[in-house]
Amino acid sequence: MKTSLSTPMKLGLLTSLYLSQGLPFGFFTQTLPVLLRKQGMSLPDIGLANLLALPWALKFLWAPLMDRHGSERLGRRRGYILPLQFLSAALLLGLALPEGAVSIPVLLVAVLLVNLLAATQDVATDGLAVELLERHERGWGNGIQVAGYRVGMILGGGLMLILIDTLGWRPTLLSLGLMLLVATIPVALFHEPPSPVSGHEAMSLGPWLRESLLSWVHRPGAGAWLTLLVLFKAGEHLATGMLRTFLVDAGLELAQVGWMLGVVGFTTGLLGALVGGALVNRLKQRRALIVFGTLQAAAVLLYALAALGASIPVLALVCGVEHLTSGMATAALFTVMMDHCRPEHAASDYTVQASLVVLATGAAAAVSGFSAQAFGYAWHFTLSAAVCALAVIWVALTFHPPRTLVSGAHPEVS
Q1: From the record, what ranges are coiled-coil (predicted)?
Q2: Which of 131, 95, 129 is nearest to 111 (CA)?
Q3: Residue 258 contacts residue 371 (beta carbons within 8 Å)
């Protein structure tokens, strides 16, 4: 995509887009588990609530259609992003209409709908990011992606916990919906250049889907790479699936959990994403995945030590270290994922990979409650760290950086 945007303007636009996705997702992944635990819901049931994020794992099914069809007037990607963000904001503002908090069933349905809207928007946003960013900009671009998303999650999660504790349900949901509308302004002002689909418009839907989705089966080393995507973040999400309930069971109040995730998590997660994005090209992809993956495993193991008994300052320190290393590892992984995308299938190729990551992390989070209840928090976090370590070993044994993809080419990934 030819564009006159400077690198800072590209990064600013992507920051607003990924922050927009993180706002509602942060509310439902960080605030909801705390509220459910405060109402006495069991750990397995809270873990299973992560299955409401299933649209994030299934978005690859409709990604090829979004690659193939787009609005000429609004833009191929922007034509999806704008209406989806407005619908998400409207849904959140609608939850603020009742006098008190909505019922749990209504809230869970809202979780599913917002996840569907945000996951669909993410397909278009990822496609736009792959097209906008030059190869030398991708490290910073993915750092910004992770950082923006984490800022949104912290604002939608930690900050909303504090607001619920102090102001109540309605002002909190109004604030969340209004923040999402404000975050929509940059993409509303953005003029998306034409991005032709390289002659694939004439291809019928069946061959297009096969070319977009099933091409992974024929790529050399695809099995090793897709296994890496399954493993690399699963251990961390197995741990953090029970982080909020762990903090509640450790005796922290809503506001304390909010400050720990909102202040500590925001600062260190943002720093980690930016540092990871800046260093991935300098370290080279394989070394970055190994170094950041090792740090991630060590940080998750700190949760196991904290579960044996820790003060609030120590819990805050451990939380900060884990957010820092997680941001670094995620930025490195996303950068490598972009390099596995063919230009004419940017949204589809990236979405297939992202969906697999989400499927793996969602499954890990879904079973986290069963693991924590069966083994206790300390052994649960130890198991999570072991899965993180297994991912690092897999990277060391199988990963080789991909070559740049062109139409019809297949990368060598293992």
Answers
A1: none
A2: 95
A3: no
Buried b (16+ CB within 10 A) or exposed e, 129-164: bbbbbeeebbbbbbbbbbbbbbbbbbbbbbbbbbbb
Looking at residue 326, its amino acid is S
Residues 6+ apart with CB under 8 A from 362: 50, 51, 53, 54, 56, 57, 237
Residue showing tokens 């992390």: 361
pLDDT in tens, 98-137: 766 667 788 788 888 988 998 898 888 888 887 787 777 7
Place of tokens 């805050």: 316
Enter the pTM of the model: 0.67
C-alpha 328/C-alpha 150 separation (Å) is 12
Position 400: which residue type?
H
**DSSP secondary-structure letter at 404?**
P
Report the distance separating Cα 21 and Cα 55, nearest Å: 13
DSSP character at residue 177: H
**First vs last Cα of the chain: how many Å apart?**
30
